[in-house]
Amino acid sequence: MSVPERVVGQHGASARPQRRSELIERVVIAVPARNEQDRIGDCLASLDRAARRWGGPVTAVLGADCCTDRTASIARAFAPTAMTLRTIEGRWRRPSAARRAVVDLVCGQLDAEVLARVWIANTDADCTVPVDWIVRQVALADAGGDVVAGVVRLDPADTPVHLLAAFTAHYQRDGASSRGHVHGANIGLRASTYRAVGGWRASTAIGEEHHLVNAAMRRDATICWADDLAVRTSGRTTSRVRGGFATVLDRLHRDAAVADSA
User: What average pLDDT score do residues 200-215 get?
Assistant: First the structure.
């Protein structure tokens, strides 16, 4: 199993080995969703495969947010073999609030000693994760990480070739710094760190993952910039949330189209 090279703290310090009492014993996966009936099945199947590869107890919770399609019913009909799956429905109207509700459902009543041994892995309902997604996050946590920030790749099945190229170029420029990419679709953190920084900010419409990581860095948490731990996400350019990831893709798509026609 390979580990990313940039496993560093806020000030560049190497990740510290965890005491045995802080080794991860349980994983909670938080998945917000809004009208994802076409992709939620693949997402859940990939999470189940990742749970099976790790082998420890995993609870995945889907937060169906203002869904008007079959997202929730498809999730409830899904039969996982290696994880527990719960589906809740609400009208949170933003991913940050849905993420918070999902995490609170599982972790809200746990005491501090237990929280240190629980890992919260976050992704989105339009994503699929690699089979070693949980294994590698837990390995980084057990090596001393408090937060693991992974990357995203566009799904070539629903992404035009010119947008794939434009996104790759943009992504490489945007991530060329000591601080890596931060995505709600691929971020994990120790539950004790999550509680210490106040959790997901339910009032934040976009960029909630940046608030979370910045708060963790202010507390000198060890951040693992996992540049080679990628989830595959939709290349759609119609955003569920104004200013979100699909908005960026739409701008890149338009710019690439203009460049091609010039």
Answer: 92
